[in-house]
UniProtKB/TrEMBL annotation:
InterPro entries: Aminopep_P_N, Creatin/AminoP/Spt16_N, Creatinase/aminopeptidase-like, Pept_M24, Peptidase_M24B_aminopep-P_CS, X-Pro_dipept-like. The lineage of its organism: Bacteria, Pseudomonadati, Pseudomonadota, Betaproteobacteria, Burkholderiales. It catalyses: Release of any N-terminal amino acid, including proline, that is linked to proline, even from a dipeptide or tripeptide. It comes from Pseudoduganella lutea. GO terms for molecular function: manganese ion binding; metalloaminopeptidase activity. NCBIfam families: PRK10879.1 (NF008131). GO terms for biological process: proteolysis. Its cofactor is Mn(2+). This is Xaa-Pro aminopeptidase.
Length: 448
């Protein structure tokens, strides 16, 4: 069994240990999705299903049966059968026999037998764990399975008396990344960093935003990434103040800043980088002034990311630097906004910084896992632990008006990197792309 298969098997074993004895868990992968006509979107598996199996094909499901007394735990995969004709059109299908041998499960069956086998597996089980209240098709399947078991009630066979949501168990496991996951995410960060460097080198006033997007996508695919992790944001001029702008259609002009938020997906894991740079290669004085504030806020956030510190400590540290910068530059008027502590307490800074500083990162760009300890009455921020991966992305966005000095209008700046919580300072996965003013200008000058 190779190392990757061993990792998937270990995750299943860990999940089984969290389940009640004799219980059953069911998790299907994502369906294929039609784009239009008879054309489908490129297939992308369900993240949690892939996390537990490594199996890449649609029309697949995993069933786990927890150990009960002398009955050992089992992992069962359902997948498409081999089909020579469909493989001519669509490519390889593993089929149950190869799936069992290649993916380390105890048994594999054709997906067409799912209803029959589930009725057998659920008979007498105390609990069924599944994805609750998220999938209408699953609700219909559950009805069929339970009715099939209940039909045997006179023989003493009972359906599971309890349904529980499987996803909190799986999603909490995904919060801490093992060494293999971190290595994949490092490579994803390196590819994305190269794409950002490429866009910086290519940038010229007069280019359209989509031309810079094309540079990113080229580097992603050229370097082996399968997909963009999300729709790239290439926002120039006033568009840089739109947080989720992704039309990417405006023509750039001399003096514009360009904010690029883009990352690739590699082997199921996302990267997420943002850089902001002048399209002509030189920051203006107001652009530089705000940029240095955001960069200092990111540095303060990095300092707060330590095992045992809370998740929100990085945000609090970044906000303190950003709010002070807003007072110093006149973005916030001291006469009306008050002191730094007043600005933070009243959240006056949200006029120019309205989002959080971090989110979990992993198989999903906004990855799974709670940010607060929900069972606590005050819901405090959860402590960080080694192996957690999160983004650090402070910003400042100045739209015209609202009392902001005119020299800052239409300046939107965000700087984002991906970090692993480590024993001391966090390990930055995306530092191959420059982030200081001098380094950005130097890189862009090389191509001019």
């Amino acid at each position: 069994m190779n190392a990757a298969v061993t990792s998937f098997s270990a995750r299943r074993t860990a999940l089984l240990a969290r389940m009640e004895p004799g219980s059953v868990a069911f998790l299907a992968t994502a369906p294929e999705s039609v784009r239009n006509g008879d054309s489908e979107y490129p297939y992308r598996h369900d993240s949690s299903f892939y996390y537990l199996t490594g199996f890449p094909e649609p029309e697949s499901a995993l069933v786990l049966v927890a150990a009960n007394g002398e009955q050992p735990a089992r992992a069962i995969l359902f997948c498409r059968e081999k089909n020579a004709e469909r493989e001519i059109w669509d490519g390889l299908r593993h089929g149950p026999e190869a799936a069992q041998a290649g993916f380390g499960v105890d048994a594999a069956y054709p997906v067409g037998l799912l209803d029959e086998k589930m009725a057998e597996l659920l008979a007498g089980a105390p609990v069924l764990y599944c994805r609750l209240a998220r999938d209408e098709e699953l609700d219909q399947q559950l009805r069929r399975w339970f009715n099939a078991v209940r039909a045997k009630g006179r023989t003493g066979i009972t359906a599971p008396p309890a349904l529980r949501d499987l996803m909190p168990l799986v999603e909490e496991m995904r919060v801490v990344k093992d060494a293999g996951e971190q290595a994949t995410m490092l490579r994803a960060g390196q590819i994305s960093a190269a794409a950002h460097r490429r866009a910086m080198r290519a940038a010229r006033a007069g280019m359209f935003e989509y031309e810079l997007e094309a540079e990113l996508l080229y580097e992603f695919r050229k370097s082996g990434a399968q997909f963009p992790a999300y729709t790239p944001i290439v926002a120039s001029g006033a568009n840089s103040c739109i947080l989720h702008y992704n039309t990417n259609a405006r023509q750039t002009h001399d003096g514009d800043l360009v904010l690029i938020d883009a990352g690739c997906e590699l082997d199921g894991y996302a990267s997420d980088i943002t850089r902001t740079f002048p399209v002509n290669g030189r920051f203006t004085a107001p652009q530089r002034e705000l940029y240095e504030i955001v960069l200092a806020a990111q540095a303060a956030a990095f300092e707060a990311i330590r095992p045992g510190n809370t998740f929100h400590a990085a945000h609090d540290a970044a906000v303190r630097v950003l709010a002070q910068g807003m007072l110093d530059t006149g973005l916030l008027n001291r006469d009306t906004a008050g002191s730094l502590d007043d600005v933070i307490a009243n959240k006056a800074y949200t006029a120019f910084y309205m989002h959080g500083t971090s989110h979990w990162l992993g198989m999903d760009v906004h990855d799974t896992g709670a940010y607060r300890i929900t069972e606590h009455p005050d819901k405090p921020s959860r402590p960080l632990a080694e192996g957690m991966v999160l983004t650090v992305e402070p910003g400042i966005y100045v739209r015209p008006g609202a009392g902001a000095p005119e020299q800052y209008w239409n300046i939107g700046i965000r700087i984002e990197d991906d970090v692993v919580v480590a024993g001391g300072a966090p390990r930055v996965l995306t530092d191959d792309v420059p982030s200081t003013v001098d380094d950005i200008e130097r890189l862009m000058a090389e191509e001019r």
